[in-house]
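Hello support,

Our group uses your service weekly, and this is the first time we've seen a run hang past the timeout. The protein is GTP 3',8-cyclase. I'm not sure whether the cause is the sequence or the server load. Input pasted verbatim:
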Amino acid sequence: MQKELIDRYGRKLDYLRLSVTDRCNFRCYYCMPEEGMDFVQRKELLSYEELDYLASLFIQLGVKKIRITGGEPFVRKGIMGFLTQLSQQPELKEITLTSNGSITDTQIQDLATLGIRKINISLDSLDKQRFFEITRRDRFEEVYQCIQNLMDQGFVVKLNCVVDGNKNTEDIIPFVRLTENSPLSVRFLEEMPFNGTGKFEPPRWNHIALLEYIKEFFPNMRKVLDEKNSTSVNYQVPGFLGTFGIIPAFSRTFCGTCNRIRLSATGELRTCLYGPPVTNLRDVLRGGASDVALMDEIIQAVANKEKDGFEAEAKSKKVPKKSMSFLGG
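Update from on-call engineer: The timeout came from a worker crash unrelated to the input. Re-ran successfully.
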């Protein structure tokens, strides 16, 4: 049996982004509308047992890293029990998390005990009022304190900032300056068309505009080595403790080295964030499929993975783009 997921372009997919819920306690404008979200019914969600079982199949097929996403993972009850269960998979090399900063002190301690040390926090402004305008929630102090607590506990923290020319360009330079005395990695993302409204204009603040703007303030910034399969192009200001990066999330210049596969909380399997679901593993699993049949389903999906995000998007032109809270990023 094939033990690795390799697509027709020779790319090995060994990184699973696993969404555990479509629900979130924030309402960021670029992710979902303020009101009128149709969250899935609980019975449609994969149970933790189903999530752990499917994760084990991906691991058997060569997945070495799993990132837990949402919605917001920590709004789902029992998340720490699931992470404990998942961390016992012996062939899994790394578990990471993406959160909006809704992590309690107790949960931080529990994550450290499990050895889950890498966390991405979505934070789009360092200004309380702009934070409220973006998230539609007045919780800036709570999120910022969570970030500080994570760093104090020795976690590797990355801050993800979606840049919108009408919302938060005033925060770009303060975010870079934040890396002077903190070992943070700040990543600026191009806005993507997954806001749940069906309306989207290509971002004016693309990766080129972002880089040129930052260079005006930090002309001595230098390129640093990117991690393998990195989606961000990374830089550092000499003398600063941390780094910053730019993710061309809409321009998709990193597709050639993609090693990701995505499973939504309802079982939708995507080989590209921009493409349609290629199968629903929840339905296949609940239909009584065997381990072999499920793994064959996954292998076939990967075999047909598109060359890049533009090719994948072309296949889903007639399908309304879902909210990022459902897709899991």
